Amino acid sequence: MCNAGADDDIEDPVMRDEPTPEALTPRQLWQQAFDDSRTREADFSTMSGVPLAPVYGATDGGGEYPGEYPYTRGPYASMYRSKLWTMRMFAGFGTADDTNWRFKEIIKSGGDGLSTAFDMPTLLGLDSDDPMSLGEVGRCGVAIDTLADMEDLYAGIDLGTTTTSMTINSPAAPIFAMFIAQAEKAGTPRALLGGTLQNDILKEYQAQKEFVFPPRQSMRLVRDTISFTAREMPRWHSVSISGYHIREAGSTAAEELAFTLANGFAYVELAMQAGLPIDSFAPRLSFFFNAHIDFFEEIAKYRAARRIWARWLRERYGAQLERSLQLRFHTQTAGVSLTAQQPEVNIVRTAIEALAGVLGGTQSLHTNSIDEEMALPTEKSARIALRTQQVIAFETNVAHVADPLGGSYFVEALTDEMERQAEELFAHLEKLGDGSLLEGCIKGIEENWFQGRIADSAFDLERKINRGDRIVVGVNRFTEGNDDRAMDLLEITNEDEARQLKRLDAVRHDRNQAAVSEVLARLAAEAADPEINLMPTLIEAAGAYATLGEIMATMGTVFGRYVEVPVI
Amino acid sequence: MSERILIGKVGLDGHDRGVKVVARILRDAGFEVIYTGLFQTPATIAAAAVDEDVDLVGLSMLSGAHMTLAPAVIAEMRARGCTAPVVVGGIIPDQHIERLKAAGVAAVLTPGAPADQVVAVIREVLDAINA
Fold first, then answer.
1. For residue A376, is it within any domain?
2. Cβ separation B64–A139 shorter than 8 A
3. Domain locations in chain B?
4. CA A270, CA A223: separation in Å to the nearest integer?
């Protein structure tokens, strides 16, 4: 019910950029790459002792192999033989202090990545004392009003060694600026900071609906963050292109695939228009997909995504670095597939969805808790969700062999079909944008095309469920036991809200007001000139303890606000 | 003349999949449906209910803020003399349903409610005030 988090500072076990000799078969090329990779400690055989190869392919050594263009079978030659996916659980609520304590617990228990969830006012660029924030402060994540909150959030954490992901979109640039200002104040230069900013504004208009500025003005901020990180922050992932929310809003698998990749192409064109060479930023783009309940369709979707991205990046945009072509992604199981009826059954749904993500070659995975449908997870339900991943990782042996379904007539055909449907949708957007996917995506939003398609698909599915054409266990069939709904749910109190309001008051009182006014005036002037990169001034504004609400309102006076035309 | 229903999203919650599906279900059932769009306040919902002279207001709430916002919408409506019943749909834990009804909500629809149940509940609430 809260925002889904991306979180994918995805590790790269091997970097290979040398040219490939023509004489070798795909299998031999794969073997070379595999030999260069490290292998984790595990017994790679079946329970009965049959030794397993790292990958299986055509007997003549031809065909496709993982780690090779177009990467249908996986971005890396060794896949989970080198490193299992990252079991990254996205959560968080309360004040910056509470979350800081949890971060330290995660680091103590061996975690190397922090995932930051923000509350709804922060996600919409509002201060905690804004009238619209009432009842929402600290509810779905941490409240960030000023640099002071950012200082509390990361106090005592070495950001030079720990990676951080921030699930934020409309106010991504100012929140990122606060993060940089905080790190540098604590002694870590920006060049050493590693992590991911979700920063995927297009899907906000299409699906998640946490928008503030109009699309074109928002895209300028995305451009500024991509340029800034390409120049100054080599370890930072500037955009996590997210299909998760598109699917949750009701799209089909093919629409999730196509809209997400189209958005990716739009960011690529945006950065290229700003003069950045493609290989200077494309390696830092990552993806975030849904894992829904239709098992094979999901696997086909991930395989098609890798192939499409590689082809478009190389053939259309001229990327050459292998890492620019390798689509890497985070997966979250489908919140919308869960039911309030007989919630224990959600464990089974989540396990099947998680397995699809793993067989599809995900780089990191979040499994939903059984109470995700109704509330933020309790400690017990969150633990069961993590255990689900551990069963898949350590009991089933499915991670021993890369792309285990590759070569299946069925899965290969379904992969081709996903790709075909996605290409049809790209063709529509390309036409809409007169040859530009960037323009096509923005026009598609402005004309409500994405929103309409997603609403139509959601309604279609609802009708099928209503007619009984599609069975949902516990909802339209097998409902015996539905009365037993007693479940312990996490209740959130309003104490955090009161604490946060006091904190904000104190910061406003203690800061140098003249400095705040000066930097905000400069921000307004620079916002009006689209040639200027706003990141340096945003970092200064953060350093002066301007509030997020003030910074967003200042830009809003120049950019205006986006109001969606409500369409049923 | 068909009965008019205002469907609204109040607060910062941007989840609009459910509200759009319900709006279409009600429209197909013969109601005249007006959708407010996102990010409404209790005051803007109440003002729209008065301006559009609606027979019923439906609120879609998925962020967990329903205990604060639903009673606030009802208070704003009553302050403007609008007596239309209010139905809440969305992620509402069982233990909150009675509390919402005590606060003046006429009916609560929870996730998984089939189309015919949505229509039946709305029908029942409307018939109750016309009786």
1. no
2. yes
3. 4-130
4. 6
- ipTM, 2 decimals? 0.91
Say if A39 falls within a structural domain.
no
- B21–A459 CB contact, under 8 Å: yes
Question: What is the number of domains present in chain A?
Answer: 1
Say if A383 falls within a structural domain. Answer: no
Residue A334, in any domain of the structure: no
CA distance B61 to chain A (A): 10
Shortest CA distance to A454 belongs to which of A341, A564, A333?
A564
The domain in which residue A137 lies consists of: 88-197+534-568
pLDDT over 60 at A311, yes or no: yes
Architecture of B4-130 per CATH? 3-Layer(aba) Sandwich (3.40)
- Exposure pattern of B70-106 as b/e (b: 16+ CB <10 Å)? bbbbbebbeeeebebbbbbbbbbbeebeeebeebebb
pLDDT digits (tens, 9 = 90+) for A286-305: 999 999 999 999 999 999 99
Partner residue facing B69 (CB), from A131, A135, A341: A135
Tell whether B2 lies on the interface with A, counting CB pairs under 8 A: no
Which of A1, A455, A466 faces B63 most closely, judged by CB atoms? A1
Distance between CA atoms of residues A344 and A346, nearest Å: 5
DSSP bridge partners of A196: A165, A237
- pTM of this prediction? 0.93
A468-484 per-position pLDDT tens digit = 999 999 999 999 988 76
Best probe of the B interface among A450, A462, A464, by most B CBs < 10 A, is: A462
The shortest C-alpha distance from B128 to chain A (Å) reads 26
Work out how many CB contacts closer than 8 A connect A with B. Answer: 102
